[in-house]
Amino acid sequence: MSNNPLLPANIDALAAYSSAKSEKLTGTTWLNANESPYVKNIDINISDLNRYPDPQPASVINRYADYAQLSADQVLMTRGADEGIELLVRTYCESTKDSIALFLPTYGMYKVTADTHNVAINGLSQALLLDGSVDDIITAVGNSKLVFICNPNNPTGSLTPLDKIKAIATALTDKALVIVDEAYIEFCPEQSASSLINQFANVVVLRTLSKAFALAGLRTGFTLAQASVLAPIRKVIAPYPVSTVVASIAANALSPDAITSMRRQVTILNALKIKLKQWLSASPAVLNVLSGEGNFVTLKLADKNSFKIALKQGLVMRAFTLYGENDWLRISIGNEQELEQVKVWLDGLSQSTTQKEQEVS
Ligand SMILES: *Cc1c(COP(=O)(O)O)cnc(C)c1O
């Protein structure tokens, strides 16, 4: 606790959020933040920066609505999906009174956001979400206002079937918003819950341009829901959340040609993921590989020290504590050359593992 008498207790108690990028690491191969390896070269020519931007740029909203097969009033553009999470908590939860439900292990921003707004966490497990009955899930959700389902889940890659999401939304009608975080849905588009939006007033879908669309630096996301769900959020969001520059780049990224090119990249990355999974499964340095649907693979190392060996080789991946064990690692799917660095690291590890076995025998 600090000695600052001005700080509310919940803010004083916050741990600094440690994102993949906030850790000061050095390296040459960056596979720690689930970014796309594809670099866009962008030319922009903007002449009206003396004017305030359109609060919700129509060119972007219309293109995203087409892409998501929704109407324009069902699309809200935000500064990343992260801002969508924050707006949902700020709009729908009452401080010190309401709670949000989440299924651990999962994306860290739900808890960070709830903590900053003095909203309680109802921490449930991925096992309950995936293997539990809908009745058990609804009982455990209790009176939580928001239910966050990360699908596919970061960092485990697991998928909650659409039927289950539908059953949960049905049971929670008028009781809670079911928020499906689809940051990685482009890697398995047939699993999207966006088709439930017209049918369910309590289904919200979060999307981003940061992953498959290769624009993490742009800070653009979308909150998708029925117009009546978005209306109060539109009162809470900052007046000019999207800069003219960002709107121009986002509109280009959502042109039909750009979407085709994104889908082509996704096909390549999904194929590389299969190759990486095979290498990992065959490696004696890896104990467990979580079969993931996103642009990443999560695994348990036989020896936590292998992570440090990778860092020495300039290979940066994301270390995780999962299930109380601090020897998990998440590898983002990079390009072929980047994954070759992972192979070099793995080959080095299995050599030293074999040597150790020989020394023992
Ligand atoms: C990366 C990620 C986000 C954040 O997306 P931004 O649009 O970059 O804010 C949200 N949810 C999940 C599950 C993510 O992995």
From TrEMBL:
Aminotransferase class I/classII large domain sequence ranges: 45-341
Highest taxon, organism lineage: Bacteria
Enzyme Commission number(s): 2.6.1.9
Keywords for this protein: Amino-acid biosynthesis, Aminotransferase, Histidine biosynthesis, Pyridoxal phosphate, Transferase
Pathway stated in the Swiss-Prot or TrEMBL entry: Amino-acid biosynthesis; L-histidine biosynthesis; L-histidine from 5-phospho-alpha-D-ribose 1-diphosphate: step 7/9
Molecular function terms from GO: histidinol-phosphate transaminase activity
Reaction catalyzed: L-histidinol phosphate + 2-oxoglutarate = 3-(imidazol-4-yl)-2-oxopropyl phosphate + L-glutamate
UniProt keyword annotation of Glycoprotein present: no
Cofactor(s) recorded in Swiss-Prot or TrEMBL: pyridoxal 5'-phosphate
CDD domains (UniProt xref): AAT_like
Subunit structure as annotated in this protein's UniProt entry: Homodimer.
Family: Belongs to the class-II pyridoxal-phosphate-dependent aminotransferase family. Histidinol-phosphate aminotransferase subfamily.
Protein name as annotated: histidinol-phosphate transaminase
